[in-house]
Amino acid sequence: MEAVRAYGQLGAVVGGAFMVGPAIGGGVAKLFGDTGPFVFAACFLVFLVVFVARFVPETGKTAQDDSETEGGRWQRAWASAATVAWENPVPKVRHSLFGCPAMGRLVTADAVSSLGESGLISIMFLYVNARLGWGSPEIGVFLSATGLSLLIAQGFLAPGLVQLFGERRVIVGGYVAAAAHFTVYALASRPWILYAGLVVAIPGFASGPATRAVAGETGAVGEAG
User: Fold this and answer.
1) How far, in Å, CA of 197 to CA of 180, rounded?
2) pLDDT, mean of residues 137-149
3) What is the C-alpha end-to-end distance of the chain, expressed in Å?
4) What does the alpha-carbon distance between residue 136 and residue 117 come to, in Å, rounded to a whole number?
5) Which has more pLDDT, 128 or 3?
6) What is the CA 152 to chain-centroid distance, rounded?
7) C-alpha to C-alpha distance for 75 and 99, rounded to whole angstroms
8) In contact, 165 and 156? CB cutoff 8 Å
9) Closest Cα to residue 134, out of 144, 122, 142?
10) pTM of the predicted model, to two decimals?
11) Is the predicted pLDDT of residue 1 greater than 70, yes or no?
């Protein structure tokens, strides 16, 4: 339950950023041109490099880490990174998919779901432009509404739904809601129908933290990726 709540809070932050980001990006584009949002985003990421390096604690420290010098830690980190870079990932993936049947099924379900969602994202802007005549302002408002739905679903509803129905039922219900959500989008002939699809999508958004929590509980320590 704590994992669901933590992943839900993370999803709520993403939803909040998704809600505010389009409005900020549109304003920056008006002030500095089309390239402005890209430069603005790059500056944010440079800030995060400093922020994470300075303020985010290391949770995987060992006694060996405490006894090493700073130079020794960097040398060991580079050696580990080089080993991973040249390592064949196929055996690990095969182990995750087939060594643990429950994880394999979960990964397969999530992969199929992500495939469908990626297909939707790739044509969504073109679709609403061709079907509803939307331009950048209308799309920005809709993206902000999507962020609000994500914030509500993952930040507030997900923990309660899991407590009431259990993780498995929430995940299954999420896939049902996602299928209905995409169907409403396909049938949308008016803007309000598209916004109604966001309401249908909320249970699907709420299933995300449950899926991540189950994956974390099923996999072995160190295999979360």
Assistant:
1) 8
2) 86
3) 20
4) 21
5) 128
6) 15
7) 33
8) no
9) 142
10) 0.70
11) no
